[in-house]
């Protein structure tokens, strides 16, 4: 009887889950188990690059890759997980509701920026999706058509975490390209922390402050955005910043589909999983990437909502979902090596290692590594069956 491993999502974890499941089935010569991927589009969107210019190019098609390894693709948007029937109901291209049965489900639906119920939040841009980041970049280009005012020349970034810092560091150059090199531009990061770059820890913090000063990025600390309108923001302490552009980067939440599985979740909506990435209490469902709250080591660290962890989580989830159908032992998810490479625009970058983020490379050296990560390491393998399946081995270490 034919069985099905259904992967929902084509982000980093979804793509690698499909390849890894196909790899293990290929090793064991199993042709009676299908690997099916359900997603709105057959492409990997390179989300870590959405702060960069030319964001509309930050995607990689997956049609040929899936075809090469025998993975089937369904274009649709998942709506409901029917656990009793073991099927996922989805809306297809024509707007019709259909269903796909599964024997094992891999939930890899990722996360979205957490937009709070804030007055005027509809005025804020974000860099969460290609379409959203493209809208921001089109808006910045259109600023040149407006009268020259401080508000036109100012961008407020709400949130000083990883995404907020990388976006803020890139924006001065984007603004000058749109408005002219002689135009005084202002990029302001509003952050509830009490130190510049505090969310990144002690190691890189002073370098983030140095880069911010050199780039002309201002920080408003111990503060949050209380309200947004077309002309600027009001902060929680009552300060007013006149700005025609506001970018929201303050936090992310796991896909809302996790709420359809009765299992423990963390504060970001991620499902608690076993070391094989099965959702606790649901042996037929695996969670991976940004929807999985997964321990990475024996020291009490957990996977972060980053592509670095999503790649390895995906390789393990796909392998282990297939293993559970084959009746063989799973591979325990473990990813003790943790690194970060933070892009700081024209200043350069900062590369750190370990959970304490010990700085190893700075400026040009780190920037060169960041470019390699962003343009090579995180992209899909080539559409060659042998090479793609080999690349999906869960035991391959992920360094970025």
Automatic annotation (TrEMBL):
Its EC number is 1.6.-.-. GO terms for molecular function: NADH dehydrogenase activity. The keyword Repeat does not apply. The lineage of its organism: Bacteria, Pseudomonadati, Pseudomonadota, Gammaproteobacteria, Pseudomonadales. InterPro entries: FAD/NAD-bd_sf, FAD/NAD-binding_dom, NDH-2. This is Putative enzyme. Keywords: FAD, Flavoprotein, NAD, Oxidoreductase. The keyword Oxidoreductase applies. Residues 5-312 form the FAD/NAD(P)-binding domain. It comes from the Bacteria. Belongs to the NADH dehydrogenase family.
